[in-house]
non-specific serine/threonine protein kinase (Salmo trutta), 305 residues
Amino acid sequence: MGQTLCICSRGSITIDNKRYYFIQKLDEGGFSYVDLVEGVQDGRFYALKRILCHDREGRQEAQTEVEMHRLFSHPNILGLAGHTFIERGGKSEAWILLPYVQKGSLWSVLEKLRDKGSFMPERRILKVLQGICSGLKAMHDRGYAHRDLKPTNVLLEEDDRPLLMDLGSMNRSRMEVKGTREAMTVQDWAAQRCTISYRAPELFNVESHCVIDDRTDIWSLGCVLYSMMFLEGPYDMVFQKGDSVALAVQNPVTIPQPCSYSEGLQNLLRSIMVSNPQERPDVNWILDQIQDMTCSSPNTQTNMV
């Protein structure tokens, strides 16, 4: 792939003939690590995601994540700064270099608001939601779905511009299921790759003959909107209590009352979070609604955190 990497004694790495200094660890997951690195030439900070590939399937999944990043050049989708695969002790690692966003994830912003006993103003919610929808639209227009949209997978720039990240669960938006075996395969995949409290109802019990499409993202988008309004996901507590999320998502979403947000925003949430995917709107309709609400909203306060 024309990409080389070396690990030097001074804590620097080279990817594609560019050197980066290791700064600190940022995050650690089951099979991946994220480090903060600084570009020697440009002085910019980057997030270096290292994915441990235990087998050929793991390597292919990492390769798919790289390809998904390469596929899109969009202001609301996190770009790719570089990548390589290295072999260590008979095991493969994928190294994915991404721009570093200092403000962090949407979830970290919501946690700060919750800790302060504050809230996110409607105008700000609409701005972030519009950016998320623009990123989703770019994906859907190319025939792909994100499949794991949630507040921790949305980064926020200083100007509140959202960036969709963690594209490892992305795949073709339309999946035609023919038979019980295929249904179980899709259901098992969703259980592994789609976060339970943001997972669309049709992915819990996949029918033996059906079509799964990008409306799974619309459901997750509704959960993200809910989390911006109420500072927690609609099914976070259900999951934490050990109750069945699969059962809970079959019922209409409950909007806590009294609610300080406009009837328009509440209705938008209700229209998105419909358990039957056939009745869910597409991202273009949602963008139109946001545009109408933004133009008519008297609230111009943005309360930047």
Remarks:
- Confidence is low (pLDDT under 50) at residues 1-9, 300-305.
- DSSP finds nine helices and twelve strands in the chain.
- The two ends are 41 Å apart (CA to CA).
